[in-house]
Structure formats: C-alpha cells, structure tokens
Amino acid sequence: KKKNAPKHWSRLLTGLTAAGMAVIFGAMGYIAMQGQDSVMTQDETPEFVVVLGAQVQGDQPSLTLKKRLDLALEYLTGHPQVSVVVSGGQGADEAYTEASVMAKYLTARGVDESRVLLEEQASDTRENLEFSRTLAQAHGMRTDRVLIITSDFHLCRAKYLAKKLGMEPYGLASRTSPEVLRVNYLLREVFAFVKAAL
Q: Could you say which DSSP state residue 40 is in?
C-alpha cells in the first residue's frame, strides 16, 4: 500500500487539476459568449443607458475606457433622443472621477452636455448599476430595462448584476485586443463572477 500511495495521490491531484482547468476554461467560454451585443428591436430599446467606468490616466480615459466611450458615441449619434449615464467614482490612483473624464470625452466629440448624466460615487460594477439607476429615476427615466455599454469581457457579469437588481439587461460590448489581453481579462472575470454570485 505504501508503495502505491504516491501514484494514487499523483493521479488524484492530476484529476483534480484537470477538472479545475475544465471548469475555469468552460466559465471563460461562457463569459465570452455572453459578452456579445444584444439584438434589440425598436420597442425593446431601453430608455436607461449606462456606460460603465474603467481606469483613467490623468484627465484622459485608458484604452479600455476609450473603446467603451467610442462605442457609446456611435450609439448616441445613431439615437439622438437618448441620454446616457456615465458611471464611475475616483480611485486612489486617479486624479479625477471616471465619470467626469467620460463626460468630457463625449461632449468634446459633439454630444450635448444635457444628454450626459454623471454618476461619480460608484466604486464597483454593482454600485455602477445601482447608483446609475437612482440617478436615471431622478431624471424621469424608466429603469425596468437597461442598456449597458462596457467591454466584452465585462458584459456578462454586468448583465448578471443588473438582473439581480431587478432590471432586464441588454448590452453593447467594445472589443478587447490583442487576444492575449482578452484571455487575461476573461480569466480574471471568472473569479470576479464567483465573488459577485456569492
């Protein structure tokens, strides 16, 4: 028995490692699939639109945030009647709130200031959605549905949290590149998703 014990534990460890990797890669695949744009009819288009914040560098958006904002700009240009909530507080390593940088970026590119609502208190995705909903309601918007504009790796968790808050979520996702960076973000999202679920 002693002679066979090392092989037994080695096989068990190998099996557990393989199972763990299968679960993680499966979860990454699911998150990637859920990070695709929603198909919406005109009747389904939510009145409540929110762009989720990401890190800013000085008074400029990071590349990740810039891609989200460029997607929001495209949407707002095609829907001139729509207002948008830009959501994000000020991190310890940030000179400005994410929302203020986002609003500046959009208005500098032609979006009227009256269409951009700033939510500057949120520190995580749940707060982004919860605080933005409160702000949208204060401005008379229906918030039973929400259109979330964020990165492809982030959209799955954002939609999940919106559902937990009682909203019907739709999404537009900015694309992450290069692929190795997207894989890294997807791996991080697996653990962030587990935390959100708990």
A: -
